[in-house]
Amino acid sequence: MLIFGVSSCSKDDDMPMDDPNDQELIECMGDIEIKNEIDRSMYLGKNKHCKVLDGDLIIYPSNVSGGIGDFSYSFLENLEVIKGNLIIYGDRKVKNFDGIKNLTTVEGELQIINNKSLENINGLINLTTIGGDVLILRNPSLENLNGLESLTSIGGVIRVEENHSLKSINGLEALISVDENIDIKNNEALKELNGLNALTSIGGHLDIDRNKLLESIGGFNQLNTVGNDLVINWNRQLESITGFSELRTIEGLLEIKYSNDLNSIIGFNNLQHVEGGIDMYGGNIDYSDNMFRNLTSVGGGLSLSSNSNQNLMNSFNSLESVDGALSLSSSGEISGFESLVHSNEIFIRGGGIKSITGFNNLSTVNGAFMLSSLHDLESIEGFQNLAVVNGDLILNHAYKLVSFNGFTNLTTINGDLRFVHNSLLNSLPNLEGVTSISGDIYIEYNWELTEVSGFNNLTNLGNDIIFSFNDNLETINGFNALTSFNNFSISSNYIGATISGFNQLQSLNYLSIFRASNIEGFNNLTTVYHSFLIGSVDITDFNEFQSLTQVGRFSIANNHLLENLVGLENLTQVGSFSISNCNMLESLEGLESLTQVGSLSISSLNLLESIDGLESLVQVESLSIDRCNSLASLDGLENVTSSLESLRIVDNSSLIDIYGIENISSLGELTIKNNSSLSTCSLDIFCDHIYSGRPTDISFNATGCMSAREIINNCN
Length: 716
What we know:
The protein contains 3 helices and 57 strands. The chain is mainly β and about 725 residues long. Among the domains are: about 1-125, Alpha-Beta Horseshoe (24 nucleotide stem-loop, u2 snrnp hairpin iv. U2 a', Chain A), CATH 3.80.20; about 150-265; about 270-410, no CATH class. The longest helix is centred in the first third of the chain and has 11 residues, at about 35-45. Mean pLDDT is about 90; it is low at about 1-25.
């Protein structure tokens, strides 16, 4: 910190300027501030022979004083120890510190700031110890740090910043330890950063940042430990990092970013542990020669991204654990990581990655494992010992990937399994060992995928299986150990798939099958609790669902080869039942055990001549029969005795007999319309309904049933 306005205890108007006793003065007490020539003369008069100053020495020339009249501070030639701070701030005329050549110790801070003409600090050649911070800031003519060659320790931070003529920091060769941080920033002329080869430890961080002409970083070759982050960022011309050969531990983050010309990092090969994580972004770095070869653990994440080098990434082969996320987003081929046993998460993503191999000792990923947006990926080999993913396992947008191997020992996914938007993928890896998936299975937009099989050891599935927009999917087979899960859905698969397997499945919450060529599984399915939707499926009957007893909502629509409902003989209860647009359906045979339906809708069944098969039906809450042009009567509903909230009979051109519903007990709403052959509607239940004034719409039927009035006229 800068300290201004401190008065000097040595200024005493009662003391003669040339007191002969001053010749023997060894230690001076109090702070001394020198702003002008008068202050300098007073110092010479009172403290010339002072060797030890027990206080701060502040040289801060005022802008109007014209300086202190000494361009090298020769008036301080006897000073050896400052027990406080040495602050030299804003002296526009000082060129060097040759007059301070006997100074050995500063127990507080050394601040050299905003000294416009300062060319060198050679006068500090005997300085060995600084107890506080070292701030060398904004000295535009300073070219090097020669003069600090004897300095061995710094008790605080060292900041070397915005010295725009600085070309070297070689003056720090004797420095052994820095208790806190080192910051080397915004030094515009600095091209090489060498030296600091005696430095063994940094208590805080090391930050080398925004030195725009810096081309290489060497040195630091005795450094063993960095107590916080090591950051090398925004050095736009940086090409190589060759130092740090003995570095073992970084207690914070290792960050190397935004140096697009960086092509070589041959240091760090003895680095063993990084506590805070590694983040490397940009550059043209060749990772093919097993860099970071002794690194065994990373306490945070490891991120390598936006590296333009196309060579094989074969590094980090001693790395055993990554406690954060392993994130790889670079170009070329990814390999290595052969000792990695576990990582918290894995993200491999981005265009330019052509192949992924290795990782063959990886056993556990504690979070998500995502292979994403890999537009150029052609092959995946490896991950042979991966057993557990405690998050989602995702492969998406790998547009060139045709097939891949690996994951052969995978048993558990505590999240979703997703294969999505892989346009050339024609098969999935062998996942036969998977026993548990706690989330969903999504297989979508894989346009060349022809078969999904396996999963026959999967006994636990937490939620859904979704197949959609897999245009060439022909076969879904397997899943034969599952007994229950939430939702199975297949839709928008252009050619329609044959679905087999699911032979142990007993219950689902939702079952939705659209566009399938055949169904050969589901033989033990007894219950669909919420909804069963089947449409555009090339089945003729329901023989594969012979165990089904209960469905919440059942919709059978647009199944143009369906002839009957044989196979549903055990179905007894449906919350809502809709059968529509099945052009070949001639009868409702198969529903003989159905006793209870919430709402029943029979619609657009052009070949349906009777509704025989519903003889066991007793309770219906609402009934709708429309656009069944071959239907002549409602025989088969005689046992329905419940009250109906609504009855709708519309657009049935051949219907002549509706006495099958005469036993219902009451009606809420009645609609009978556009049944051109229907002339007899004077059922007692209709007469009572109309007499009571409840909602009624009778119109456009045959004479005798043209209106409510005609019905009333024929009532007894």
